[in-house]
Recover the amino acids of this structure.
């Protein structure tokens, strides 16, 4: 029983450097600031009221749309990839998994920058198209919402593939055999057996991608222009340039609460799913 | 019919894999291009790498990154391993709460974690620098260590530990000679992942770094903001190679380790 003590350091650490800082942020979101950015310790809900100004509502809508599109596209790209990997032999599976994982570990700053080299007006694509005579003016491929979407999909794809792979891997193969023995076409088997049974993996992947896309600021910062600002950029801006910490805090509280609600929803769905499966 | 569908899926997957790797390949290729200005290929060179090694800012950033990565790896691996052992062998009354707290650094948006630490340090008047970076890095690395080692512990059968105790090993000996060697691949994998996370982190470091504690990703960011240059490609290439080596080793350790454990089952 004395082993319990071993968990104490991490719990104390996380309380000090995770829970307490978050409480600080909550507190700061309810106070005022002076014209020069100094915090004034007087209560206000002004920082939250400011969130419903049309300018910010527009940024929320843009961010949500971006996150939803990123989730859908990574799903379309990721599911077949995960499916193909599970059909391989064990050795190949491991190689492919590492191949999918490596970009996930390479830092997103570098991966976004790679797209700048490709898309900018003197970049790879424009240089090639110009030299082949297909265009005579460089195309504006960078610094718009499409380039942000591309960068998002590119950086988030591994988040989608890995959870789906795990749920496909755990799928009971006997069900698939039973289905085809009973005369179902492969497509029918996929639609009625594989897809519904891998929903938890799809949900996990979608939530990971969606939440990560919501709070993303590196990708829009590097491949998006000033026009394609998302919540992440707005928050960064409040903390580092505008020096409006209370408003930045209010924004990040909204972002965190929203993300946590999604995660809780996911766990609920997962629990319901599991209890269903346990029942005979 | 079957092969037709399979080859379609395989080609689709290969295209996606190409999508994942082509930009990285382009970045690496251009780090060897002999021109500063544009994307026209003018010949091979390693001058961008050479200029990195004589650049004091780069060397400072490398040394900062390494100091921070080593310190945070050691502490987060130690704390993470301890926590994984405790969670594995004890029943906690507040199990769900404790578990949620441990997973929190992964679930919470990175940017929020970074700025909340900034707010904490500012309110406590702690000067931003290497110390604050190390604290921040430990905080987000620990959870990954706990997850990796917990997975390893789950895979272990209790038989060996029980056998050791039947043979009169005390709990320390059981741990030292049975459990520890068995979870060692997990610990090393966790440490490598921590190291990679730390050396690659940009978002959180961005908030808690001080003026003289720029790490490699922060330096790369500053360069990118100033404009495209082949030195960025060279520096990125080096970071990519380090990441790939670490991830591949850690992956091998996790896979090999779990195969070995299956033998014992």
């Amino acid at each position: 029983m004395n082993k319990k003590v071993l968990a104490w350091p991490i719990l104390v650490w996380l309380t000090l450097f995770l829970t307490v800082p978050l409480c600080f942020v909550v507190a700061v979101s309810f106070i005022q600031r002076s014209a020069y950015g100094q915090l004034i310790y007087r209560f206000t809900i002004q920082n939250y009221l400011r969130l419903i100004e049309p300018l910010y509502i527009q940024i929320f809508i843009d961010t949500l749309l971006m996150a939803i599109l990123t989730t859908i596209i990574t799903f379309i790209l990721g599911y077949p990839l995960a499916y193909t990997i599970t059909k391989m032999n064990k050795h190949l599976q491991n190689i492919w998994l590492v191949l999918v994982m490596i970009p996930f570990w390479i830092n997103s700053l570098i991966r976004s920058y790679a797209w700048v080299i490709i898309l900018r007006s003197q970049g790879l694509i424009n240089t090639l198209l110009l030299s082949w005579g297909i265009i005579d003016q460089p195309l504006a491929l960078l610094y718009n919402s499409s380039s942000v979407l591309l960068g998002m999909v590119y950086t988030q794809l591994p988040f989608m593939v890995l959870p789906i792979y795990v749920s496909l891997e755990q799928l009971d193969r006997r069900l698939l055999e039973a289905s085809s023995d009973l005369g179902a076409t492969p497509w029918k088997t996929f639609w009625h057996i594989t897809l519904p049974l891998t929903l938890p993996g799809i949900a996990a992947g979608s939530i990971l991608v969606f939440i990560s896309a919501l709070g993303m600021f590196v990708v829009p910062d590097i491949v998006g222009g000033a026009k394609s600002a998302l919540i992440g950029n707005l928050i960064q801006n409040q903390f580092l340039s505008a020096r409006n910490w209370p408003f930045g805090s209010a924004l990040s509280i909204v972002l965190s609460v929203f993300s946590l609600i999604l995660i809780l929803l996911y766990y609920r769905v997962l629990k319901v799913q599991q209890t269903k499966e346990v029942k005979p | 019919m079957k092969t037709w569908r399979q080859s379609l899926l395989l080609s689709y997957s290969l295209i996606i894999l190409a999508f994942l790797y082509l930009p990285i390949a382009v970045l690496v290729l251009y780090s060897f291009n002999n021109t500063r200005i544009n994307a026209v290929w003018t010949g091979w060179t390693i001058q961008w790498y050479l200029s990195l090694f004589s650049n004091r800012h780069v060397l400072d950033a490398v040394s900062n990154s390494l100091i921070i990565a080593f310190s945070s790896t050691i502490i987060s691996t130690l704390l993470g391993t301890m926590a994984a052992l405790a969670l594995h062998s004890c029943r906690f009354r507040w199990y769900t709460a404790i578990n949620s707290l441990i997973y929190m650094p992964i679930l919470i948006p990175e940017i929020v974690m970074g700025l909340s630490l900034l707010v904490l340090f500012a309110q406590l008047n702690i000067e931003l620098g290497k110390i604050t970076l190390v604290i921040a890095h430990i905080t987000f690395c620990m959870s990954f260590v706990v997850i990796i080692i917990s997975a390893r512990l789950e895979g272990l059968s209790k038989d060996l530990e029980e056998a050791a105790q039947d043979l009169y090993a005390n709990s320390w000996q059981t741990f030292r000679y049975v459990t520890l060697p068995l979870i060692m691949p997990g610990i090393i994998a966790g440490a490598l992942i921590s190291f990679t996370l730390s050396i690659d982190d940009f978002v959180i470091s961005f908030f808690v770094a001080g003026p003289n504690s720029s790490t490699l990703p922060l330096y790369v960011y500053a360069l990118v903001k100033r404009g495209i240059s082949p030195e960025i490609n060279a520096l990125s290439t080096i970071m990519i190679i380090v990441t790939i080596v670490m991830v591949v080793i850690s992956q091998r350790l996790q896979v090999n380790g779990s195969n070995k454990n299956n033998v014992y089952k």
About this structure: Chain A has one domain: 53-278.
